[in-house]
């Protein structure tokens, strides 16, 4: 069980919650902060003070005072009107992450929400009740208003939930558990939707999948190196120490570990003097992508533990401040950076695929790895497909964060588009996973034309993993099914 307190949630813990079914609980000290913050809100309502989001309208309506008898209706109206998302639903793993992250942010104790609402969010995580949330509709500032409103619709029994891919009415789910839907009170609707948890949730899933891919790209490129009689000298630690980038040295070290004991790798001058960049520069290229991943992880872990709603209640100082922590610019930049870093893993992988299938570049391998050249095309169109995916990535890698469209009658006149960036990053990761799966599929066949018995022991284990998923290219067949199986194998 993982205890949430609003301040110490990590990516590693999110992996356990999202992919291993780890349950969560609320830390007792966080509970006390939440209770104190709620008392502050109730005091404001009781004293009839005018405070944004508690007894005023929202956005351009912030100057409209709401009477005490209507503050509950204000919150319900907010959720109903803002639940305006469109398009395909977020995967369940993303909505699960969204629920965890919103709960964790509210546990910081600056939001004025009732503790029982947070208990319901924890129940949703532990019982795998995942809100049905459309992916499109967020500007990434004033929070992820549309996606998070769909999450809150689930709480109040008006939305839908996903359970193992099936869409169910939230009210029916609450009836099954014999609990009432939540009735929102002062500030609670705003507290629940004013945050960056849609982009951050998608960002966390992106990071976890991209990290797995980055590690996989090393053993996959190792299979290609063996297939092409790669030169091991380029991975010598001295080469990378003098450059000074830790990530580059780390990749080189892992690559040396992968091809330790290989009889297929060569030395300078044994077959050729130097390899092309897509082989020789694996530590430099992949290492740079690891720099991106490290940056993204740092920013995500900060945001995962941040108070991102508005206004914020500082009980010790007896003040409520209307600020802008909901603005998603830090995560927008991180997601755009992630798009570039992951795209490059696909770019260089596609270049290695070309060397595996092109007889002018493959050091004696059959053209397109075809068992019957001319009669059969072999891996010819696999390289086409990889090129198509890489090209699509280049379009998706255009930064979303450089765009902004004013909203709410120009009150919200600059937005981050961070959720768009996070969604596009996920598409790039999916494309890159297929490109790397194509490389793995081709390299596994190519290395068989050398001598499997001469492979490095660790790489031979990986070759065997692939062979348990997909057979080699012995005759033409529908190869995309094999590639998809390998791609699935590369998922967390």
TrEMBL record:
SUPFAM superfamilies from the xrefs?
L-aspartase-like
**Record's InterPro entries?**
Aromatic_Lyase (IPR001106), Fumarase/histidase_N (IPR024083), HutH (IPR005921), L-Aspartase-like (IPR008948), Phe/His_NH3-lyase_AS (IPR022313)
Q: In which pathway does it act?
A: Amino-acid degradation; L-histidine degradation into L-glutamate; N-formimidoyl-L-glutamate from L-histidine: step 1/3
Q: What is its main location?
A: cytoplasm
First-tier enzyme category under EC = lyase
Catalyses: L-histidine = trans-urocanate + NH4(+)
Keywords (A to Z) from UniProt? Cytoplasm, Histidine metabolism, Lyase
Gene Ontology terms: cellular component: cytoplasm
As recorded in Swiss-Prot or TrEMBL, the protein's gene is named hutH
Q: Which GO terms describe its biological process?
A: L-histidine catabolic process
Q: What does the similarity note say? A: Belongs to the PAL/histidase family.
Q: Which Gene Ontology molecular function entries are recorded, alphabetically?
A: histidine ammonia-lyase activity
Q: Where in the cell is it found?
A: Cytoplasm
* PTM description: Contains an active site 4-methylidene-imidazol-5-one (MIO), which is formed autocatalytically by cyclization and dehydration of residues Ala-Ser-Gly.
Q: Is Flavoprotein included in the keywords of this UniProt record? A: no
- This chain's protein is named Histidine ammonia-lyase
In terms of PANTHER family, this protein maps to: HISTIDINE AMMONIA-LYASE
- Where, if anywhere, are coiled coils annotated? none
């Amino acid at each position: 069980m993982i205890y949430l307190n609003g301040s110490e949630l990590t990516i590693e813990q999110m992996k356990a919650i999202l992919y291993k079914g780890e349950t969560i609980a609320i830390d007792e000290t966080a509970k006390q902060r939440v209770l104190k913050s709620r008392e502050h809100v109730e005091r404001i309502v009781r004293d009839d003070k005018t405070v944004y989001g508690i007894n005023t309208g929202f956005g351009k309506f912030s100057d409209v005072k709401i009477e005490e008898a209507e503050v509950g209706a204000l919150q319900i109206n907010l959720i109903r009107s803002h639940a305006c998302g469109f398009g395909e639903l977020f995967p369940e793993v993303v909505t699960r992450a969204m629920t965890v992250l919103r709960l964790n942010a509210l546990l910081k104790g600056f939001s004025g929400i009732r503790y029982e609402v947070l208990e319901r969010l924890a129940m949703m995580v532990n019982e795998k009740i995942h809100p049905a949330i459309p992916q499109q509709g967020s500007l990434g500032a004033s929070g992820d208003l549309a996606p998070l409103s769909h999450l809150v619709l689930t709480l109040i029994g008006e939305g839908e939930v996903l359970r193992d891919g099936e869409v169910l009415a939230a009210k029916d789910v609450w009836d099954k558990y014999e609990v009432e839907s939540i009735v929102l009170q002062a500030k609670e609707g705003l507290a629940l939707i004013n945050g960056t948890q849609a982009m951050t949730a998608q960002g966390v899933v992106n990071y976890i999948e991209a990290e797995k891919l980055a590690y996989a790209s090393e053993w996959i490129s190792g299979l290609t190196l063996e297939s092409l009689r790669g030169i091991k000298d380029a991975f010598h630690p001295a080469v990378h120490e003098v450059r000074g980038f830790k990530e580059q040295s780390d990749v080189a070290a892992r690559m040396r570990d992968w091809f330790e004991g290989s009889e297929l790798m060569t030395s300078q001058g044994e077959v050729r003097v130097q390899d092309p960049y897509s082989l020789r520069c694996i530590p430099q290229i992949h290492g740079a992508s690891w720099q991106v991943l490290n940056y993204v992880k740092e920013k995500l872990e900060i945001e995962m533990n941040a108070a991102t709603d508005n206004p914020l209640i500082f009980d010790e100082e007896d003040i409520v401040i209307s600020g802008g922590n909901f603005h998603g610019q830090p995560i927008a930049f991180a997601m755009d950076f992630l798009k570039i870093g992951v795209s490059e893993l696909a770019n260089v992988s596609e270049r290695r695929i070309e060397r595996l299938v092109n007889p002018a570049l493959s050091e004696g391998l059959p053209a397109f790895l075809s068992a019957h050249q001319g009669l059969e095309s072999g891996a010819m169109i696999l390289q086409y497909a990889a090129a198509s995916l890489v090209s699509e990535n280049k379009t998706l890698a255009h930064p979303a964060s450089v765009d902004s469209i004013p909203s709410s009658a120009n009150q919200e006149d600059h937005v981050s588009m961070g959720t768009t960036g996070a969604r596009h990053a996920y598409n790039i990761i999916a494309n890159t996973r297929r490109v790397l799966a194509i490389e793995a599929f081709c390299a596994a066949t190519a290395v068989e034309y050398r001598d499997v018995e001469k492979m490095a022991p660790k790489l031979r284990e990986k070759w065997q993993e692939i062979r348990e998923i997909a057979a080699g290219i012995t005759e033409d067949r529908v190869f995309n099914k094999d590639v998809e199986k390998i791609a699935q194998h590369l998922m967390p």
